[in-house]
DNA sequence: CGTAATCTTGAGTCACGTCAATTAACGTGG
DNA sequence: CCACGTTAATTGACGTGACTCAAGATTACG
């Protein structure tokens, strides 16, 4: 697997990645049905029997898991082309998936998928590459959550989001946040209040400007990235 | 992929998992060479061209990545049967791998591995299952790092370690720690000093007893597990 | 037995979690 | 268009968990 990243994989989409090639998507769609979900509607919940694998057609999906303490951790946010539900444990979903707005999904029976993969080694190989990419993403998150303070985590998230033209307008230097402070907190492993305070501090430091709650102006991407070089504690 | 976990996968080995079936290991060994590493010797470093994939034959390997701040995060510790180096990004290793003691590894050329997988869909499928397992493990770590305080993280680690008979003796209820406070800190996303203090607190609370720096007595697994239900802050 | 590495403890300070209250944004019906 | 209710966002106050620097204590090892 030296050529583990195809050209398609090479795009700078650190976070919200659309990684299946059009060809692969065609294969899948042959056995897929299109289903629709409304805002904040559950696609499936952790602990329930796993029946389907999904691919995002449009919209946004939140993948999360509940901690023993009761609070939930957002594992990732998925966009068009991303797949999920493909790795149940003992036939049970380990995560919950929730549509974050009007969202359409391709849905495939896991048994049919397995059958397809058995007869299409090339597709199976692409799934392997895809899984490898997801694993690297997950490791990046381990790094962020393990080593960075909340300001740095937020900066990392904003920088990831800026790679997506759906959310970032380089002309206006404006970044729109497609999620609530609560979701942001659950993603960064902190509270919504702290998210707000950190946004306020970044604004005071001139790294961002809050045009509204969900719309930021980012004067300099580099300045934001420089935050990541600092230590966790600033004595 | 409804049957994504084989019997082999079902063992309770949350953290240090040996997941390749004997049969798969045989296939790999046909094109593998055995190599040996001494304590604290680098197998490869992040940023260097990726040439090989490895499987641990004996010993222990630390997978880590350096943060922009300079500190390193330990992604995982690998034991016999675990594989690594299989997911370079653009032909370059994204993590560093270090032998933590006398360690023997099976080494396979990535190009040869790719060739083998191309002709052995069954093996490729097992790689896919393996990757899915690793991904779930990584997601568990995201949960731990995102939601738990250091005491809880340490407890989670100890509980994981207790699943391994190499380190835990249920008769004596003794758990041996095969790593330094530094490695432990880098794994838990904290400092070695804090690790020590947390160990001291757990001892004061009767959850563990430090027989020596690297040997713990754990009276009750359940009591330790109950820690995880608490909140991050104990006001 | 000496030197270095590892482990432990201490002191001080900040970052952040939590509870509480206020303000802003948004939709809905009159 | 406005009154109202509901949710999201923000700000305040406060305590504490954990980071950092520093200095001992213990262990490992040649």
The helix fraction of chain A, in percent, is: 25-40%
The two chains with the largest interface, and their residue counts, are: A-B, 57 and 57 residues
Distance between the termini of chain A: 45 Å
> In terms of per-residue confidence, which ranges of chain A show pLDDT below 50 for 5 or more consecutive residues?
1-18
How large a portion of the residues of chain A is in β-strands, by DSSP E?
A: 15-25%
The chain-level mean pLDDT of chain A equals 90
Could you state the order of secondary-structure elements of chain A as H and E?
HHEEEEEEEEHHHEEHHEEH
The neighbouring-strand order within the major sheet of chain A is 1-8-3-6
DSSP helix count of chain A? 8
Assembly level = homodimer
Total strands of chain A: 12
Characterize the largest beta sheet of chain A: strand count, sense, and whether it forms a barrel. 4 strands, antiparallel
| Rg estimate of chain A, integer Å | 19 Å
Please state the overall shape of chain A, judged from the principal axes of the Cα atoms.
elongated
Question: Structural class of chain A, please?
Answer: alpha+beta
Characterise this structure.
2 copies of one chain form a homodimer. With about 240 residues, chain A is of the alpha+beta class. In chain A, the strands form 3 sheets. In chain A, strands 1-8-3-6 form a 4-stranded antiparallel β-sheet. A 4-stranded antiparallel β-sheet of chain A has the order 2-7-4-5. In chain A, helix 3 packs across helix 4 and helix 6 packs across helix 7. Chain A is elongated, with a radius of gyration of 19 Å. The termini of chain A are far apart. The N terminus of chain A is likely disordered. The interface between A and B is large, with 57 and 57 residues. The structure holds a DNA duplex (30 and 30 nucleotides).
